[in-house]
């Protein structure tokens, strides 16, 4: 950017300070697209200089970039002396580690991409910054007057310099008092005077697009050699009078210089399309043109386009909305039945079926009879590999009705428990992998899962022509899941059984000894009766025989 602007700034230097300016007006001004910088060679303290810039609608100059530095160099050329910049230290001491050393711009911020200090930080207390022809920044006491000051004026847009032959000698004046005839750009409110034409133009907002342009209060074009007569398109002199003309599809605005669309000011509610020397109105999709030819009214798409929706159609302003019945959802513009599995809680696999869903289990599992959405381990053989957690070797599971069996090599299997050996059934029993089934003898019927009762004479044994059933199966009861017994438990059971056998043997010996006492003892107890004595003699041989067996 510096390479592009510097040549332009050098070309504009001829217009700086060439006019004899009255006191209080800038001695030189340079304007860019959004900024103007002016120099005032009037001695003043920092506060006085700042107030003078503010009265003109600006503030003391901020030099934040090399572009501003180039403008500053042009303003200071061929002049010596110090000028205030808009940089100050309100209080405290300088901070060498910071780019601005703790100083701040008069705009209240410390943002900058450029610094040019002359020497190391000076003393503490309020300090201000001045600049000389070498462009170096120097700290000074704020109350000491400098030889002048630099003002900065900012604006959003600008008017370009008018194209005109040199003979016309057009001069310009800015709102802050700068005058000259060779500006690159002029801020809003600036005035251009062409004395030879007796013409005065002002840089102001245009009524058509809100941009800045040169104009005057009276409509129509001025001399075409000065800024194309103010015309947007073509300026022609006809019969000694300048006139503006516009391209097809546009027309002259009320000022007689700008070109506006044929649709400008058209009453169309939605769209306007230029049509020859006029226009016609159109409406957005979902609307139709009303009878007045300019307003638009909504079209009921649901009524004019039957079947546009699968199930329900709701007309809206400028369009329509398709909806689905309960139990359906919109998928790519069509209603589809909501999958029941979306709301199911199947542990493994879910299958949508008409009117509902069905849960399935992975291999090695079956659906839990107590909870249809859950799965439990299942084995349909007498033995199956155990379900083990690979992260924990001892964490293995077997289906109900199986017991874990450790094999050589760390293999773990689930072995079926034969519940029929546990006498669960009152009559007959059939073992199945993981379960069992009880059956009753002929002439009996089940009372519950295990017990049977005899069929009474009053109960019918036949039904129609069917043969009587010889066996009535009872419902299978799955026993509690068995696990491997701890060796300590087996030892305890063995010790208990042996203890009971020893107790029984001791009891039998005691009874035998009691019955086989010596004759003297028996005679003593039976001396009172001859019949008893006879009875004792009959018993004695038996006792003797028992003693011999023992």
From TrEMBL:
GO terms for biological process: endocytosis. GO terms for cellular component: membrane. GO terms for molecular function: calcium ion binding; carbohydrate binding; transmembrane signaling receptor activity. The chain crosses the membrane at residues 489-512. It holds the Pfam family THBD. SMART domains: CLECT, EGF, EGF_CA. Keywords: Disulfide bond, EGF-like domain, Endocytosis, Glycoprotein, Lectin, Membrane, Phosphoprotein, Proteoglycan, Receptor, Repeat, Signal, Transmembrane, Transmembrane helix. Residues 1-20 form the signal peptide. Endothelial cell receptor that plays a critical role in regulating several physiological processes including hemostasis, coagulation, fibrinolysis, inflammation, and angiogenesis. Acts as a cofactor for thrombin activation of protein C/PROC on the surface of vascular endothelial cells leading to initiation of the activated protein C anticoagulant pathway. Also accelerates the activation of the plasma carboxypeptidase B2/CPB2, which catalyzes removal of C-terminal basic amino acids from its substrates including kinins or anaphylatoxins leading to fibrinolysis inhibition. Interacts with ITGAL, ITGAM and ITGB2. Interacts with thrombin/F2; this interaction switches the specificity of thrombin from a procoagulant to an anticoagulant and antifibrinolytic protease. Interacts with ANGP1 and ANGP2; these interactions significantly inhibit the generation of activated PC and TAFIa/CPB2 by the thrombin/thrombomodulin complex. Interacts with PF4; this interaction enhances generation of activated protein C. Interacts with HMGB1; this interaction inhibits HMGB1 inflammatory activity. This is Thrombomodulin.
